[in-house]
Fold these 2 entries.
Entry 1:
Amino acid sequence: MALIGVFDSGVGGLSVLDEALRQLPQHDYIYLADSANAPYGEKSSDWIAKRSLTLCGYLASKGCDAIVVACNTATAEAIKQIRETLSIPIIGVEPGIKPAAMQSQNNIVGVLATETTLKSDKFNALLNTLPNDCQFIRQAGAGLVPLIESGNADSEETLELLAKHLEPIQDAGADTLVLGCTHYPFLRKGIRKLLGESITLIDTSEAVVRQLKRQLENLQEVIPTVQHGAVLFLSSKNEESLLMMAQDLMSADLTSHAVEARILGEMR
Ligand code: DGL
């Protein structure tokens, strides 16, 4: 079985880990949350690139066979460097604007992501590959990540801020919304409350994990097993609170895995 590293600025990547545990429960995982430094979306490109490279290097040094950079912002700013530096498969996440353009009926798509992701060369290069008959309403979700990090994904304050950010998307009549930050799937309830049931929400976790699965199949023979692997949660801020948030936010049954939480002391 493989050891897989999953890295995010904080708890957002738990949405990707959740899907990984659903599709690939037999593997062992290290989930690394750099919550002491979240949100990354408000940091400089250089800082994000350097920090992401350091933390992915740390995961590789712990024996990870593959790493999922479960952060759109870190992927946009650092994936190239990480891939150039480390010799294991590195899977990134990107706002799902391509599937959104394909699924939208009225060709009006909202994209909610961090300012850094929306401004990045990588995102804009991806945008340029799509036909221009689709209109993308881009909106930075300033302030949402800290609220989710502090365990307030479902609070009234979050709903109010979300309503403000979603207004231009709603006014434009978008029928599809891209969740362009891995923290945002945890706002699904609020988004549905504000935009209704009919809007299509695009979250790329499932596709990202399928990509991870393909990479693992290239690396090693996959032996079918009913066993569930171990999950180690590492936080640069507070390991107890990371574990509590994982139990609260994820739908995976963590009791069927050997779970441990530790502070990321050496990398703070
Ligand atoms: N989960 C990160 C992302 O997907 C959050 C970015 C942040 O920390 O600002 O972009």
Note: The mean pLDDT is 96.
Entry 2:
Amino acid sequence: MPNLQEVVSDIADEMKARADRGEVATYIPELARVDPAAFGIAVIAADGTVAAAGDSDVPFSIQSISKVFTLTLALGKSGDRVWRRVGREPSGSPFNSIVQLERERGIPRNPFINAGAIAITDLILSGHKPREVLGEILRFMQFLAQDPSVAIDEAVAASEARTGFRNAALANYMKSFGVLDNPVEYTLGVYVHHCAIAMSCRQLATAGRFLAHDGRDPSTGHSVVQAERARRINAVMLTCGHYDGSGEFAYRVGLPGKSGVGGGILAIAPGKASVAVWSPGLDRAGNSHLGRVALEALTRRLGWSIFGA
Ligand code: GLN
């Protein structure tokens, strides 16, 4: 077995040197200010060993990676009723597509495309005030990351709130089909704020550990969800976590993963490790370009693909 820290350091060095870095997201103006040269990686193995390199302690905007955790909260609150509101099939469409929503009468294809995540946010908002539910999401992230300093980047949230016309269209469209229960502006307010949570690779990999270990965080023994639920969240991550790049990610990396337009990816090697990478430049599907390249190198060198060595 190769030395984990050596593998991780090698990959970080290779990624720092590469010229093909993708394009930083600009449709949320605040994200356009991030340095495209950044690269971070953190791997937390089953025994708790942490291997990290590059900018692994620099917080970045987790964006859509937050959708894994809001889905977890929604399943905790409503169980399988979640699946009446959103499907669990890959979309084959961009993350902010509106066409599919019309064909499918306002029921989003899965909880990770924007429409689906907005519907999930609406579900966990019901019965609460926006501020309360946002506090609950943030506390959940702090608890999982074992770090009370995890915070929302208010500048990113305000930037997206100012420019999120497409998400407002998706939300209003779903509202017209009766898919959202709360006022659209409340649901969108919570959504942009949970997307604007900032975390480092190390914090994010820590937060993902329960998904790698049958729903339990092995360091604390805390059961976050039942094993069956963790397995199912991983399945949705594998099939839908990278939008219309999900097939390519499964083909190249072979792990359940969730990307965000901040350039982060959380990837889960079941039974083995929780991994977070960050490189802000995106490919055409809006997924981190070098993040995917780094994960491909990692799973190849360690034989971690769920589909075999
Ligand atoms: N907050 C972003 C949006 O709604 C999240 C998108 C993403 O990370 N893919 O556009």
Note: The chain has a mean pLDDT of 97.
